[in-house]
Amino acid sequence: MRPLFWRLMKNQHRSWSIARRLFGISLLLIFLQSVISTVVTAQLRRHFFNEFLEETLSRQIVSSYNVISNRLDQMSVDEAYSCCSIEDYRSWLEGLSFENGKVALIIGEAGLQATRDADRFYEITELSRYAKDAIASSTGFTVDEADEDVPLAVQAVKLPGGVETGFYVYIRPVYSMPLVRTLMQIKLVSELVLMLALAVALLVGLRLVFRPVRRIKSELARIELNQLESADLSSRDRPREFQPLLQEFNGMVGRLRRSSADQKQFASTISHEFRTPMTVISGFIQSVLNRDENLRAQSRDALVLANREVLRLNRMLSDLLDLSRSDNNQLKVLREPFDCLASCNEALRLAQIAYPNNPIVLEYCGLNQPVYVIGDSDRLIQCLKNLVGNAVKYSELRSEISLEINAQDDSILFTVKDHGQGIPADQQERIFERFQRADGVTLRRGDSSSGLGLSIVKMLMEGMGGTVRVQSEIGVGSRFILTLQRSLS
Ligand code: ADP
Q: Whole domain around residue 398: which residue ranges?
């Protein structure tokens, strides 16, 4: 069975990125390291007190204890046994010097007897407690850390002698404690700084490691499907690990390029080959409709319908042809001055013929003399026809469509406005792509849609050095705005 930690990382946090996992694991390791180091330091500290201090203290206690044993050695056995009263011990110890607050105590049946100055440093109750702790411990040694600033090391040895005698207790403040604490603080701070530095280094490291990935990602995002010719990713200056990936990607782009070229060639051939027969069929239908006045109403209706469909197919074919010419850089779009008011009038006239059921109005917005723009008159008319067609298609029957012309700075704006369904905000960009239709926009029965019209408008407007954009609100309507550069001549 796998460890819990591993399962957590794998299952519960499936959405974690590699970078986050790496970062988390590193922080966990750093944290573990600091816990282990704290435990080890605490152990070392304990060792220092118990081993080192005990040894030092024992050496010191022996020297003062020797004073007492020397005295006892000078007595006979009987004298020694009847000895020694606490007064004796006191007088023997009088001669000893206790430096650095060292304290000697005699503790026996007579109770605790602090030697000279002992009660100046400590309360009698404290002294008693230290002494009892030392006597009770198996080694006679104890460290009292209750007072953080000056912890005490206490050593007790049993005294020979009479009933009043008991233990000789030696207390010593551990002055090295502040040093130990400072060292501990330095260690803690340095560990925190190290952790922080490691976290920063890890973040910077991860950013560096993932920089090539980010660069490739942004290059991939810039690739346009209709510009596959320049879609290859260069493998120069890339880490070695990415080379196979880049080769695979470039191979895939190559395959896509070939397939796209085949498709374009196919569309171009089909459009070419179909257009002539379509024109012939349409011509024949038209001439039958014009010449034969004795046609039955049913046959006439059928022929009118057939003609409409042929014309629609023809429009689609010329759209496809335009697109494939543009893909092959063969589409001719002029960039020359022309009177856009005249073009708008022509577009209006054609639209009114094509959509007799809808009131279509043209608003000049104060522009009443020839207004020259840079572009291609026929192509502008084509764009406006396309937009008016859409406005009719996606609005209620007999809904009003308006075409406004405005001047703005150095540009002329042509706005086709409808009161139709409107386009959802998240679809307003993609409707300019080939074969894309807006989700949620419905087509009236009998109307057809290829998803090509707006991509052609965009292509033509860009060809003329202009732009197209849309403003739309669901249930209110849409405004498609074309912009062309104004010309002074
Ligand atoms: P088509 O109309 O043949 O589908 P277009 O490229 O002209 O292709 O339009 C793309 C899509 O944009 C349409 O399918 C429709 O969903 C949406 N659209 C275009 N014009 C309008 C409009 N005036 N009102 C609402 N939706 C529109």
A: 334-485
> Do 322 and 348 sit in the same domain of this protein?
no
The dihedral sign for the CA sequence 157, 160, 162, 163: positive
Distance 441 CA to ligand 1 centre (A): 8
Q: Are residues 348 and 448 in the same domain?
A: yes
Query: What confidence tens digit (pLDDT) does each residue in 194-205 have?
Result: 888 888 888 888
Span 396-409, pLDDT tens digits: 989 999 999 999 98
Most confident among 234-238, 283-287, 334-338 (mean pLDDT): 334-338
Asked if the model's pLDDT at residue 52 lies above 90, the reply is: no
Domain end, chosen from 124, 159, 184, is at: 184
For residue 423 and ligand 1, the question of a CB distance below 6 A is answered with: yes
Final residue before a domain boundary, out of 326, 361, 379: 326
* Residue nearest ligand 1's atom 26 by CA: 423
444 shares its domain with 305: no
Residue 170 burial by Cβ neighbours in a 10 Å radius (0-12, 13-18, 19+):
buried
- Determine the Cα angle at 429 with ends 423 and 432, to 5°: 95
